[in-house]
Amino acid sequence: MKAYQEQLNIQNNKLLKALAHLEYSYKKIAKLPEDVSKLDEETLETWESFCARFSRVVDLFLTKYIRTAVLLNDPGFSGTLRDFVNQAEKLNLHDDTEHWMAIRELRNISAHEYTEKDLSLFFKQLKKECPFLLTIKKVLS
Hints:
Oligomer: single chain
Shape: elongated
Mean pLDDT: 92
Largest sheet: none
CATH architecture: Up-down Bundle
CATH superfamily: Nucleotidyltransferases  domain 2
Number of strands: 0
Helix content: over 70%
Number of helices: 6
CATH topology: Four Helix Bundle (Hemerythrin (Met), subunit A)
Structural class: mainly alpha
Radius of gyration: 16 Å
Strand content: under 5%
Low-confidence stretches: none
């Protein structure tokens, strides 16, 4: 149990730092155009940084923090990522498993190739979901 608590503290700190970086990037992209065809290299780089930070927060929260928090509560728990996310909802670490799984899917598709139109839609979706993602700070406090 002590090892899980130590690991949870480590993940908590990593997640807080990642959230601060994401929030910084979110503020930078908040008023940027989403239409990729209208972006210069610097603006595109800003969007790509935001996407990477978004993905990092999703990974840290779902695959590290939640897994560790669930195991701290029940060291014998096992299952898929969805099982862990469901269990985390029961532990009040979040309140919407389906929404988190949809965000995980968004994170997963970030590695694929896109047309300009698809990439523009992807940027728009990430921008829309970012405030939800930032709410996990309340779990960490």
